[in-house]
Write a structure and sequence with these properties.
heterodimer; A: about 160 residues; alpha+beta; Ubiquitin-like (UB roll); DNA polymerase, domain 1; 5 helices; B: Aldehyde Oxidoreductase, domain 3; Aldehyde Oxidoreductase, domain 4; 3 domains; about 25% helix; about 25% strand; globular; (2Fe-2S)-binding protein (chain A); 2Fe-2S (chain A); iron-sulfur (chain A); metal ion binding (chain A); metal-binding (chain A)
């Protein structure tokens, strides 16, 4: 293609523990790298302005909206997407989501799980306020969030 | 019973479709890619109302990587769609009527090239006067948007004395108000999208969310001018819909492009495009005049509804019929006169959305009830009880309905909510905050209603893999159709989830079951399996008898296979697995049934037969400095028959409630002169986890009147219908202010606070 031909650059980063090297335009978005280049479609796309959290991933230990991160920002970064959580068995957060009825259509779920993981990695027993703040960047239209809070209660043994 | 994990006990089951959702492994239809796939994009109108002078695609065609560009000239069949009335052009020919109207579409090698190509198409417009006020649109002098004028549909209902004005003259109390409701957006998290894959003999497979696969098949067959059988619709799973994906969206474009290019074509709309093009909830202006005698008996009720249906019909007529039908809700009023108008404008298209006109009318009706109670000095509960429908009463439009005591049951129960107890001290949580409490009730029809074909079908078989395969033409959009089918199957046949295979959402494999809308899925699944149960067991046991040489009277279906039981109901041992049975048979047992959603015998268009009921209690906290309202507690009482799937039921009520909270306090896709003032989720705000009540309880009343054999009703909509008036009533309790316009505006509240000198 010859439209908007821009200089591409080789970018290397780690995704879910695996070293990846891709040649990309510097403004190519992380969400597209994940979904289109790497077929990691667990990361969803829903607003593309960093408001809904459906594309949340953990980058260098911090929760980010992958629609707002561009290729030039991920050089040498360590990124974890939803696909990294379950290995032989489900991650406790995933298990709690199933047990609590924390999902319906499931489209926000990967982002929501990553946001909660980011919080719980930092603090095992967060306060209710901390939970609400940490998840306030992730929109869910189906559950009304009650089920998600049930899952948090199961994880933090407050039930 | 209070519905929660504890009360549900062993019936609280993890969703069988849950694991691929929490792991991100589930491929939604918008996640799919195919070899040789092209990307599509749709050029939508720049103007809300304009003449198209010319469309020049030359420059776009010359762009490298562009494979096809299509306009109205490329529509093989009918250039129109719409579930009932096909008045929405696939591509506009000479005129655009709203900012989402499609003019051209492109298929290209990459998303970027497709977008670039769209920007290179030159359309010259002559803007026309826009029609944005539905009341003005009805004026004779108004510009006509469609050949038949601007009135899409008129609906009316009248009972009692011919001259209602004379009855009003006899009323001791009259409340006359106008209510306004917002253009709420569905905000399904997965925007519209999908892939069309052409096959070798001119047919297509469409992978795109919809709430009625066979309806898409029919609509596309008209547009593409090919027989329905050559179009296969795969419509599930769906990342949320709430009614919004019931109508066609991107399907015509990917289909035509795929046929033209002979390659798979994908479109996944951005949120910006979704907002411009997608359906919304009908904004309604509702005039209501209600009169009672001195003791609070309602004797006159006059309602006029103006619904802004936007540029095209979709299900606008049915939504209006629903609002008209529910204008007096669960109350029996002697003299009623309702007129409704669904009006075309150049605003975005309004259509089907959870609650289906019920949310708007219930807000008006329940606020009227509270106002009458206040004006007459009668306790609002007493007023409601006085006028409430009784078990054997006719339905709201004087049609025969299934006898129900749901109205009284939810009222009796909701007033017991701890939120509403007067001994609850009003302790402000901060110096500048006051609390208020209120409640409301509603009734809501299920199914499509009289005069609308509402058939369903179900198939049950032992498949070759040894699973009890059950099949419906429904879709899983998150509501929990799959776990509900799973629970009904395992409880009907005493089997395990792993014994069951569920086939849905694929027109090549499923029977016609009608749409996954109108709170009908659960009821239709329950009825279908109930109808097939005896015949299926009979066939299975006949086959098992031959295999085992044991009398079928001593055999039964159970976990993993056929069980032997010396005494009835006491299975002793598994003697034949389903798999063994399947491999031993030449012809696998299959049963099929078709049936209809239960419908009233009375010929009243859209009149329903089965109703659900809800009561909602809300506690709010009003910030005296900002006028901001927070809902701190909500309780819900639902009467919808037996709870099939406790997790799903609870989730529907909780989710519906917070969608209702958004409708009441924050959501409105504001339009100015036919253009959306909001482009994305940074300005169209829906409730986040910080906005929901600190405490929510759901109480399910499972009992039905003796002799009611219609089983569990669907609860997809009922949780959202009565939320607004409960919150508005609670705001009134706190501030003394009655609000007629949603979403609630902080400045209206501040004004009331100033007037009442609540501060200082």
């Amino acid at each position: 293609m010859d439209t908007n031909k821009i200089t591409e650059k080789t970018t290397s980063f780690k995704i879910n523990g695996k070293l990846i090297e891709l040649t990309l335009p510097p403004t190519f978005r992380l969400v597209d790298i994940l979904r289109d280049c790497l077929a990691l479609t667990g990361t969803k796309i829903a607003c593309e302005v960093g408001r809904c959290g459906a594309c949340s991933v953990i980058m260098n230990g911090k929760l980010v909206n992958s629609c707002l991160i561009m290729a030039y920002q991920i050089e040498d970064a360590e990124i974890f997407s939803i696909e990294s959580l379950a290995e032989d068995r489900l991650h406790p957060i995933q298990e709690a989501f199933l047990q609590a009825g924390a999902l319906q259509c499931g489209y926000c779920t990967p982002g929501m799980v990553m946001a909660l993981k980011s919080l719980l990695d930092e603090k095992e027993q967060p306060t209710k306020e901390e939970v609400l703040t940490a998840l306030s960047g992730n929109l869910c239209r189906c559950t009304g969030y009650e089920g998600i809070l049930r899952a948090v209660d199961l994880l933090t043994q407050k039930n | 019973m209070v519905l929660d994990i504890t009360s549900a006990g062993v019936r609280w089951k993890k969703r069988r479709d849950g694991e691929p959702k929490v792991t991100g492994k589930l491929k939604y239809l918008t996640d799919m890619v195919f070899p040789q796939m092209l990307y599509g994009a749709i050029l939508r109108s720049e103007h809300p109302h304009a003449k198209i002078e010319s469309i020049d695609t030359k420059e776009a065609e010359d762009l490298t990587g562009v494979t096809a560009i299509i306009t109205y000239k490329d529509v093989p069949g009918l250039n129109g769609f719409g579930i009932v009335i096909q008045d929405q052009p696939v591509f506009c020919v000479d005129k655009v009527r709203y900012v989402g109207d499609a003019i051209a579409a492109v298929a290209a090698e990459t998303k970027e090239i497709a977008q670039k190509a769209i920007s290179l198409i030159k359309v010259t417009y002559s803007p026309l006067q826009t029609v944005t006020d539905p009341e003005l649109a009805l004026d004779k002098s108004a510009v006509k948007l469609h050949k038949g004028g601007n009135l899409l549909h008129k609906a009316a209902f009248k009972k009692g004395e011919a001259k209602l004005e004379e009855v009003f003259n006899r009323c001791a109390i009259i409340v006359e108000e106008s209510y306004h409701t917002p253009r709420q957006m569905h905000v399904y998290m997965e925007t519209e999208g999908g892939v069309a894959v052409p096959d070798e003999d001119g047919g297509l497979t469409i992978y795109a969310p919809t709430q009625h696969g066979f309806k898409d098949q029919l609509q596309l067959s008209r547009i593409l001018d090919i027989i329905p059988e050559k179009i296969r619709i795969i419509s599930s799973p769906i990342g949320g819909s709430f009614g919004g994906k019931d109508e066609l969206n991107i399907q015509p474009y990917i289909s035509i492009l795929a046929l033209k290019t002979k390659r798979p074509v994908k479109i996944h709309q951005s949120r910006r495009v979704s907002i411009k093009a997608g359906l919304k909830r009908h904004p309604m202006k509702i005039f209501m005049k209600t009169g009672s005698d001195e003791s609070g008996n309602l004797i006159a009720h006059q309602v006029k509804i103006i619904a802004d249906t936007g540029a095209y019909a979709t299900l606008g007529p049915a939504v209006l019929d629903f609002a008209v039908e529910h204008s007096a809700g669960p109350y029996r009023i002697e003299n009623v006169e309702v007129e409704g108008y669904s009006v075309y404008t150049n605003n975005g298209v309004a259509g089907e959305f959870r609650g289906f006109g019920g949310n708007q009318i219930t807000f008006a009706l329940e606020t009227q009830m509270e106002r009458i109670a206040e004006k007459s000095g009668i306790n609002p509960t007493e007023l409601r009880l006085k006028n409430l429908r009784q078990t054997m009463d006719l339905g709201p439009v004087e049609q025969q309905i299934v006898p129900t005591d749901g109205a009284k049951a939810v009222l009796t129960e909701i007033i017991k909510s701890p939120i509403l107890q007067k001994n609850t001290a009003t302790i402000p949580s901060g110096q500048w905050k006051i609390k208020g409490r209120g409640y409301s009730i509603t009734m809501h029809g299920g199914g499509l209603g009289y005069g609308r074909p509402d058939p369903s079908g179900a198939r049950l078989s032992l498949n070759s893999a040894g699973k009890l395969e059950v099949s419906f033409g429904f879709e899983e959009c998150g509501q929990g159709l799959i776990p509900t089918i799973d629970m009904i199957m395992t409880e009907t046949f005493n089997c395990d989830s792993s014994d069951v295979a569920i086939v849905i959402g694929d027109t090549a494999k499923v029977p016609h079951s009608g749409s996954s809308t109108a709170s009908r899925g659960t009821n239709m699944v329950w009825l279908g399996i109930a109808k097939l149960k005896a015949a299926f067991i009979e066939k299975m046991l006949n086959a098992a008898e031959k295999q085992t040489n044991m009398t079928k009277e001593k055999l039964s279906l159970g976990k993993s296979g056929i069980w032997f039981c010396e005494q009835p109901e006491k299975p002793q041992r598994l003697i034949l697995t389903y798999r063994e049975l399947a491999t031993s048979l030449e012809e696998l047992p299959t049963v099929f049934t078709s049936y209809h959603f239960p419908t009233t015998p009375h010929a009243i268009d859209g009149g329903h037969f089965l109703y659900t009921f809800a009561g909602v209690a809300a506690e709010v906290e009003v910030d005296l400095l900002t006028g901001r309202v927070a809902v701190t507690k909500m309780d819900h009482v639902i009467s919808a028959g037996p709870v099939v799937n406790p997790m799903g039921y609870l989730g529907q009520i909780e989710g519906g409630a917070n969608m209702g909270l958004g409708f009441t306090l924050m959501e409105d896709a504001v339009m100015e002169n036919g253009r959306y003032m909001t482009e994305n989720l940074d300005t169209y705000l829906i409730p986040t986890i910080l906005d929901i009540p600190k405490e929510t309880n759901v109480f399910a009343i499972e009992g039905l009147v003796n002799g009611d054999t219609y089983g569990p009703r669907g609860v997809g909509e009922i949780g959202t219908v009565a939320v607004a008036p409960a919150i508005v009533s609670a705001i009134h309790d706190a501030t003394g202010l009655w609000l007629n316009r949603l979403p609630v505006q902080a400045d209206a509240i501040l004004k009331a606070i100033e007037q009442k000198a609540l501060i200082g």
